[in-house]
Amino acid sequence: MALSRRQFVGAAAGTAALAATGTATAQEEPDYGGWFDDVSNYDGTVDKRGQDTVTITVGAQGNNGAFAFDPPAVMVSPGTEVVWEWNGEGGGHNVVSDGDGPLDSGSPVSEAGTTYSHTFESEGMFKYVCVPHETLGMKGAVVVRPGGSGDGGSGGQQQQGPPENPDYGGWFDDVSNYNGTTVDRTDADSVEISVGAQGNNGAFAFDPPAVRVTPGTEVTWTWTGEGGGHNVVSDGDGPLESGDPVSESGTTYSHTFEEMGVYKYVCTPHESLGMKGAVVVGGPLDGSGGGSGGESGQEGGGIELSGPQWLLSGSVLLAFFSPLLFAVAMRRRQNGRPPQMGGGGELQRATGPEPVEEAAETEPAVELGHDEYDPKGTAALVAFYFVLIGLLWVFMYFVEFLGRVSIIG
Amino acid sequence: MVFVDSYPKTSKLVRSEFIVAFAALGIGALFGIIQSLHRTGVFRGFISSADYYTILTGHGVLLALVFTTFFIAGLFTWAVANSLERELPHRIAWSAFWIMLTGTVLAAVSIIGGLVGAPSILGHDLKADVLFTFYAPMKAHPAFYIGAALIIVGSWVAGLAYFKALWEWRSENPGERIPLQTFMVVTTMLMWYVSTIGVAVEVVAFLIPWSLGLIQNIDPLLTRTLFWYFGHPVVYFWLMPAYLVWYTVLPKLAGGRLFSDPLARVVFVAFLLLSTPVGFHHQYTDPGIPSGYKFIAMTNTMFLLLPSLLTAFTVVASVEHGARQRGAKGYLSWLRNLPWGKPAFAGCMLAGLMFAAGGFSGMINAGMNINYLIHNTIWVPGHFHLTVGTAFALTAMAISYWLVPQITGKKLQLRGLASLQPYVWFVGMAVMSNAMHRAGLAGIPRRTAEPTYDEFAFEGVAGTVGEMRLQIAIGGFLLFVGAAMFLIVMADTLLARRGGTLSVNGHIPEPLSGANHSPRILDNYKLWTAIALLLIVIAYGPPLASMVADGLFAPGSPPIPV
Amino acid sequence: MQVHRFEKVWLGAALLLIVGFIATIAYGSVGVGVGMVDDSGGQISAEAVQNGNTGTQFDDPGVVQTGEDKYTVYVVARQFQFVPGSGDNPVQVPAGANVTFRVTSADVVHGFSVVETNINTMVIPGQVSEVSARFNEPGTYGLICHEYCGAAHHTMGGSVEVVPPEEYDMQQENIDQSADDAQAQEEADQ
Fold it and tell me: Which region ranges are annotated with the description Disordered (chain C) (predicted)?
């Protein structure tokens, strides 16, 4: 299944990415279990609780065309009527529950202005698809949950603890896989950080290097088995101390953080290479502008290139220029040798191109004129070809073709 | 005297046309290896499956439209100058080059746009994932259609240069027979003019305004039919230059003489007459077209086999003559008395051999009802990689080894690599194409990024599906290596120092049966063009009339952006 | 004009080959009765197919019995599925019967090919492809869209299930039966 470019770019460009992180909303982000992995326009759950009616556009731009629901993930209060409205683009769409579920708008239709609605009474997560475009990523989900954004929705929540992107004071200056953002995992009860991820000229990185969690979260470091022996040790005073460096894949070390603060740590043998990390313990962040590496930047107007596409573009350019480069390299080696002159004389020209001569015309060993030549060999070859074609035709027509069910009218 | 010194201005034009052609070949070949690895499942890391279609469009357009047209322009420019012994009209010829190049850049940019996020240019997304055949109602960026139109128009202007040279020569040489190479160029270009009418109407009258939003709906069946009006003769636009090489140069490379000039003229006239009224054989499975028209197309196509079968005889007889002049005896052992170590010779021979196989799969394609066995399966690319992919492309590469030294004044470099290259190409193509044919018989489709389906599994006809896929990947890889070998040799030669003695010469001996033995009426190309147009009116008039009877744009479809 | 006698013989042989090809094809068509796709399906408005308001059976695609041993299957091809045909909604027809497929497109050009048979047609918006065939052996045949139709073209496939005639009628009955059961259950619940 193909990931869209936006998805790729959005997922922590340049580092070994974890699953896509969406923007956190006022409440914790529901766990969709990978449902939105191939949905290019998924950008976190939009909290629309407290509204009586919620509209979702069918045929919004996304997934290489007009193959998206907008918003794909929405949270509503029980009793809300959700209305899907077709915008007329992207061909025929429908709204059908994934597996058992109450949603079924029927056969795909395309007409703009078509609507389909459903009032959600009970709590839960209701995943749905557009059947003909499911494989492209035209999926959505409605999460029905009480509580709500009565207290102002986005922007009202107070932030507790360290700010969203704390000033690490140059801590990450030499950490190659730090991309400037602190991954927001405040929605999770337990968080995993891999030890020996790719970075810093080898497998000398923590991934993610900077992560934010809420108090009471257990952070588990898991060894990849690469990069030799690693450990997890607090920088200066601090609670983290995994012991002597070990290298075995699957080793784990956990710590539950209770107090708010910024906890910097290192891998002792590789600290000088840049194997450093930080855990930020603070309250959950609010929705607007949220997170951490989830935004994928420009829409449509700019040029987006993901990892494999840099590979492709680079290959194209390399292929284009490589014969020239190779030839130039060859030329340098041969530069000493002048071309051979045919015939006598070393006449030097003052101006004009280097003289060049054609090869001499060779006389045939046996001269055969028009009346002396009978193409016997050719006759033999074409006779063979004639027989071969005839046999192959008979085989193809009577055995292969007529041996199968055919159209009779 | 070497060609470059006799005709320096024309040489410069040929060099420019070849360089553009080789650049297109390089990028197209890179796309080819990406495709063959991706669709066989061997390696899918370069691109996503959605992007596969962008790459496929690039592969088709760059190789089957840009590489071919520019190379043929270069070859024809050389052939006319060489046989008429004069420089080509400078301004017309260069205008053609720049028009074609502009069109190429426009089309290429619109295709590549699909790989870099399709930014919106002038209100439309810059992408053209519509493949080489650009069927409506799928819609690409208008720049794609405009670019394609410019390439075609540029080729028309190039033809004007050849005709002007011919008319000037004729006024200086009244009563003389047209030299064979120029005759071949002229008949090919006339066939081209006649056949591009269809696609020009399709693109200029329908697709460009429709993609710009000036027309709302167009009739997909009509535009398809106009495309295939052009889509079959275009393969002869590729094949006839290869035949030009096989008829006029290959005998000399073998050490012999052309067996028959008159028959060569007859063959080319036959192509002028019959290439176009056969287009419906690409539409055998189309609804909306009565079977009667399909039957006429089928009989025309079968008769179109005749000039190719005659070519087989004449060309092989000429090569045999060369072997005999080297002293060979016997029914088949003369094949050994030939310069297989010379890349120009070996390439042309291997291309011809492969064409014999490709011709057979073409006969199956042409067979009206038996076509249903393999329509739109991967058998079809198996077929055309043998024909345009080898008969044309390998001949082009082979003749470049002979021609490029003459148009640059530089010796061919890396001879070992060059001698090996045709064999690498041949083996790669044999491996890939045979697997494609067998996979097509199993029903595996063409133009598909991932030919596995949830609902069922394919069964191999001769060999397993997995083994066929592997052969396609291996063959494709060898072809990529072959293309790279060729480009390295060309680059090294183009950058070499001029001078010394070349190992080739441009002398072409007189045919065994010469021009003076062929009826003068063969040179009356106005007559043949008129008959060709008449045959087209008969084959296409009634069906097109019935398609537009209910309205030019009905039953209509709006654009569906890819 | 002189033509070497060998080449004259070859010319004759080539013409023989060509005529032989045309004759075989004619035999296949007239003798064996192999048919072609033509314009018998008629035309239709693609936009109406898209919206489901053509006023024909294409608005509710599926298998319809049209005679003692004759069935017509209405198939709509769209980006990126066949209705019916794709996913868990295969086309079901009985073995031995005369089955006519009427296929049209709701959007772009598609293909309709039943794997391992010669049932192979283009599906062009605005036109209806009409092909008839008789499946003598029961089994499941794959169904493919073999004409590039967009970014997910490679996912567009399906299947045709050919069921033994006795089982076919029973299947129909079973479907109706379970639908009745479900309805009865619902009414009981309320």
Answer: 168-190
Q: Is the torsion defined by CA of C137, C138, C140, C142 positive or negative?
A: positive
Per CB-CB distance under 8 Å, the chain B contacts of C14 are: 305-306, 309-310
pLDDT at A156: 37
Find the domain containing B269 and state its range: 3-561
Where do the domains of chain A lie?
26-153, 183-281
Contact criterion met (CB below 8 Å) for B398 and B351: yes
What share of chain B has pLDDT > 70, as a percent? 100
CA distance B215 to B208: 9
Residue B393 has pLDDT above 90, yes or no: yes
Q: Which CATH architecture has domain A183-281?
A: Sandwich (2.60)
Backbone angles phi, psi at B143, to 5 degrees: -60, -30
Residue B119 half-sphere exposure toward CB, CA atoms < 13 A? 10
How far is residue B531's CA from residue B500's CA, in Å, rounded to a whole number?
A: 50
In tens, the pLDDT along B152-176 reads 999 999 999 999 999 999 999 999 9
Interface of B with A in 510-529 (CB under 8 A): 512-513
Q: Are C96 and C135 in contact (CB under 8 A)?
A: yes
Average pLDDT over residues C85-109: 93
Across the interface, of A136, A374, A378, the residue whose CB is closest to C152 is A136
CATH number at residue B201: 1.20.210.10
**Beta strand spans in A149-188 (E):** 183-184
Task: Please tell me if the domain spanning A26-153 has the same topology as the one spanning A183-281.
Answer: yes
pLDDT of residue A155: 39
Beta bridge partners, B534, equal: none
Secondary structure letter of residue B510 according to DSSP: P
Give the total number of structural domains in chain B.
Answer: 1
**pLDDT 10s digits, C21-54:** 999 999 999 999 999 999 999 999 998 998 888 9
Which positions ≥6 away from B390 have C-beta within 8 Å? B350, B351, B354, B355, B358, B425, B426, B429
Residues of B annotated catalytic, as ranges: 232, 236, 383-385, 446-447
* The predicted structure's pLDDT at residue C176: 42
DSSP C84-147: TTSTT--EEEETTSEEEEEEEESSS-EEEEETTSS-EEEE-TTB-EEEEEE--S-EEEEEE--S
Q: Beta strands C98-105 and C91-94: pairing type? A: unpaired
CB contact under 8 A, B294 and C46: no
Determine whether the interchain pair A131/C20 forms a contact, defined as Cβ–Cβ distance below 8 Å: no
Q: Is C51 on the interface with B (CB under 8 A)?
A: no
Q: Report the alpha-carbon distance of residue B396 to residue A120 in Å, rounded.
A: 68
State both tokens at B14: 């040929």
Return the sign of the alpha-carbon dihedral for residues A25, A30, A34, A39: negative
- Contact between residue B219 and residue B555 where contact means Cβ atoms under 8 Å apart: yes
B517: which chain C residues are within 8 Å (Cβ-Cβ)? 1-2
Contact between B120 and A396 using a beta-carbon 8 Å cutoff: no
Residue A343 forms contact with C (CB below 8 Å): no
The answer to whether the CB atoms of C87 and A408 lie below 8 A apart is no
Binding-face residues of A in 372-391 toward B, CB within 8 A: 373, 375-378, 380-382, 385, 389
Q: How far, in Å, are B34, B429, B453 from residue B40 at the CA level?
A: 10, 16, 13
Q: Give contacts of C38 with chain B, Cβ < 8 Å.
A: 287, 289-291, 294
CA–CA gap between residue B339 and residue C72 (Å, rounded): 63
CATH 3.30.470.20 is right for the domain spanning A26-153: no
Asked whether the beta carbons of residue C152 and residue A111 sit closer than 8 angstroms, the reply is: no
Cβ neighbours around B501 below 10 Å, total: 18
* Pairing status of strand C120-123 against strand C110-114: antiparallel
Q: Is the ipTM beyond the 0.90 threshold?
A: yes
